[in-house]
From TrEMBL:
The lineage of its organism: unclassified sequences, metagenomes, organismal metagenomes. This is Uncharacterized protein.
Length: 51
């Protein structure tokens, strides 16, 4: 699947949210990349067909 190249979305995550993601990771949770991927999938599923 081809897609338009986008800037890294991580630069849109604010410092407070990044700290929360890091804390989750440090407590034995998922790596930040997995947390972000999961959130994106959930958002896409939730908003599918509303655009």
């Amino acid at each position: 699947m081809r897609y338009k190249k986008y800037n890294w979305v991580g630069n849109k995550i604010d410092d407070n949210d990044m700290c929360i993601l890091h804390d989750i990771k440090e407590r034995g949770g998922k790596p930040i990349t997995e947390q972000v991927a999961e959130a994106v999938k959930e958002y896409v599923t939730k908003t599918k067909g509303t655009a």
